[in-house]
Write a structure and sequence with these properties.
By secondary structure, this protein is α+β, with helices and mostly antiparallel strands. 65% of the residues lie in helices and 6% in strands. It contains 24 helices and eleven strands.
Length: 669
């Protein structure tokens, strides 16, 4: 019998809990619906649970008040108790709405960890926390924290100190942050010039991994013992970076190759750091206006995608083959690209032919043995090949600094490191070529049109003002010296930013390639006239695109595209003329055709109507509550006051909904 009693008690308790949950869910659903914004379910259910508990206590109290069981408290008739109960339920609901609005305003949905994350993923959070602390300590140690918080004052050298501290902090923080700084150095539309100059010199010094760590990593990624692939492999790396290191090797057939192997722990470190950067960018996007204006979330996502591609050596292998095919199709420039071995390469291992010679950054001895004419020829070949890739083929090496350009003992050029390769569509190639052609012809109008076509037209652009600025630039650098090439590029980019053009990532990569190759050109030949040769090569490339056969092919292609429209043209013209003759011609314009315009106006009117109704309800409620007229419900409360509290409930709920609509617009905007 006792067991049955215990079982019954358990069943009743379970039924009560289920009923409480369903009641809380129903209350939460109604509150969520009234608020009009998809708030998070955990907080909504929590508010609903509290509402259910308060409702239970209130109903019990008013039931006792209406049945005469309150000896020291409220004592009213059953009808009045029911009215009070309805009013109390409404105000409990209204306060629940208010609590949810305040929670959403203070902690927007998605800004706090999910409930399940409180119980799972402790190890990853602990690792991420340690890495957070490490990065923050690096920034503080270099003085970056006080500079960013403004403790350094407004001294003239403050920006320089902050930029240097940022560079040193990123360099010490590791490969991911070094790559982030290098990417930011190309975004002159985001960072001030002093930061760009510092970040352009960002490098990292690392200690090579010992051969005892690298040897098993190579064997694992080959999927077989090293001796089955290589007759010999050097245990001392030729070069070591934060992600990978490079070793010499010889294949079984005697071919000399280079083995690029990714450090065993590099991927985990990059993945962890990217997670931190993406989380930080998401928080800045939600919490700050400047973060949304700069698009830090999309910027971080683009950086993460680019870095993940650079860590996949299969993509680099494909890029190498694409650049090799591009130079082969051109046939105009003697530039060597190492041949890759797909059968021996993989996601974390790359095997390619060894290029003899030295990188330009360390080829001083080789260069001194060359005559001035030979050095000029090398520089012309390098610049011509770069412009041919960008304008002629649309596939180009996007990281042409002096360390990635080789000079062979026989005086030829070679390219290395194809992790960063840019691609331009045919329309962008043509626009870029036309801009260089117009610059060569001192045609400011043509250069302006090509610039607008290349970057798109920003809102409120003054074409005449841009044309005048371009014309002044062409006059200033019409006879530019070799040393003024970088200055020309800087002024052109500053012109783009001054007129609020947005620079798409592929075009930014092309500009970066042209800017970085200039340093290598002047290292090869300090007297090289970058501006003059760029103009000449740009002119040649555009003229090659405008050859008779190419123009004929293009016209035929366009004519085929126009044929369907030409077929329908006579019938349409005939209908228009008939309508004009018989007075039936009319034009229909839909002002709010764009869905975003309709959505904006709908939201605006919705907020206005809700705000007006809320204000009217509150004013009416105050008038009724302060009125001393009408029948008495109790000795202290008039019927009109009761109706005033009911009306105030409606005004309060409408006010909360209006606030949530404002919060949603601010979050979306």
């Amino acid at each position: 019998m006792e067991a049955l009693d215990v079982g019954g008690y358990v069943l009743v308790s379970l039924a009560a809990l289920v009923f409480l949950f369903l009641q809380s869910w129903f209350a939460a659903t109604v509150v969520r619906r009234v608020v009009g914004v998809p708030t998070g379910w955990p907080r909504t259910l929590a508010v609903g649970l509290v509402m259910s508990a308060v409702v239970a206590v209130t109903v019990q109290y008013l039931y006792r008040a209406g049945t005469g069981q309150n000896t020291t408290g409220l004592d009213v008739s059953p009808g009045v108790a029911v009215l009070f109960m309805v009013l109390a339920l409404g105000w409990i609901f209204a306060l629940g709405v208010g609590a949810l609005v305040m929670l959403e305003a203070a902690f927007p949905t998605g800004s706090l960890p999910s409930p399940q994350s409180l119980f799972f993923g402790w190890k990853s959070r602990r690792r991420r926390g340690r890495r957070y602390a490490q990065v923050v300590s690096i920034a503080v140690r270099h003085g970056l924290g006080s500079q960013l918080r403004g403790f350094g004052g407004d001294s003239p050298g403050r920006d320089v100190k902050t930029a240097r501290a940022l560079k040193e902090s990123l360099a010490e923080a590791g490969v991911t942050f070094v790559k982030l700084g290098q990417m930011l150095s190309t975004r002159r539309d985001i960072l001030p010039p002093v930061f760009v100059r510092e970040l352009e010199t960002l490098q990292t010094q690392v200690t090579p991994e010992p051969w005892s760590v690298i040897e098993p990593a190579i064997a694992e990624r080959l999927g077989r013992p090293i001796g089955e692939v290589f007759a010999w492999i050097g245990s001392t790396p030729l070069a070591a970076a934060s992600v990978a290191q490079v070793h010499e090797a010889t294949l079984l057939d005697g071919t000399e190759v280079i083995v690029k192997v990714q450090r065993p722990k590099a991927l985990n470190q990059v993945t962890q750091d990217l997670d931190i950067i993406l989380r930080l960018a998401g928080w800045l996007n939600k919490a700050t206006t400047w973060g949304r204006d700069l698009g830090v979330q999309s910027l971080a996502a683009g950086f993460a995608n680019t870095l993940e591609e650079e860590l996949d050596y299969r993509i680099e292998l494909d890029n190498m083959a694409s650049i090799e095919a591009s130079l082969t199709r051109s046939g105009k420039f003697d530039v060597t690209v190492p041949h890759g071995y797909p059968a021996l390469s993989g996601e974390r291992l790359l095997v390619m032919d060894r290029l003899p010679g030295q990188p330009v950054s360390r080829a001083g001895a080789l260069l001194t043995e060359l005559s001035g004419a030979e050095r000029s020829r090398l520089a012309t070949t390098l610049l011509g090949a770069t412009l041919e890739q960008i304008i002629g083929d649309g596939i180009f090496h996007a990281d042409l600094h002096a360390g990635n350009i080789f000079i062979t003992p026989d005086g030829k050029l070679g390219l290395l490191d194809f992790g960063a390769v840019g691609r331009l569509d045919p329309a962008t190639q043509t626009s870029l070529g036309l801009m260089l052609y117009s610059i060569d012809q001192n045609d400011s109008a043509g250069a302006t049109d090509a610039l607008i076509e290349l970057l798109g037209r920003p809102d409120g652009l003054d074409d005449r003002e841009v044309e005048r600025a371009v014309g002044e630039l062409l006059l200033r650098y019409g006879g530019a010296r070799a040393s003024q090439g970088q200055k020309l590029f800087d002024d052109l980019f500053n012109l783009v930013l001054a007129h609020r053009f947005s620079v798409p990532a592929p075009i930014s990569a092309a500009f970066r390639a042209m800017a970085s190759v200039e340093g290598a050109l002047l290292t090869i030949d300090p007297h090289f006239d970058v501006v003059a040769v760029s103009r000449r090569e740009g002119n040649r490339l555009v003229r090659s695109k405008l050859k008779g056969t190419k123009i004929t092919d293009e016209l035929q292609r366009r004519a085929l595209q126009l044929m369907p429209m030409i077929d329908r043209m006579p019938r349409r013209i005939n209908k228009i003329t008939e309508d004009l003759e018989q007075g039936r011609f009319s034009m229909n314009m839909r002002v709010l055709e764009n869905p975003s315009d309709r959505s904006f106006l709908t939201s605006l009117f919705q907020q206005l109507i809700v705000a007006v109704l809320a204000g009217a309800a509150v004013v009416g409620a105050i008038m009724l509550i302060t009125s001393d007229e009408g029948p008495l419900l109790t000795k202290d409360i008039h019927l009109y006051s009761f109706f005033g509290f009911v009306l105030l409930f409606g005004g309060f709920v409408l006010s909360m909904r209006s606030l949530m609509l404002v919060f949603r617009r601010d979050g979306d905007g």
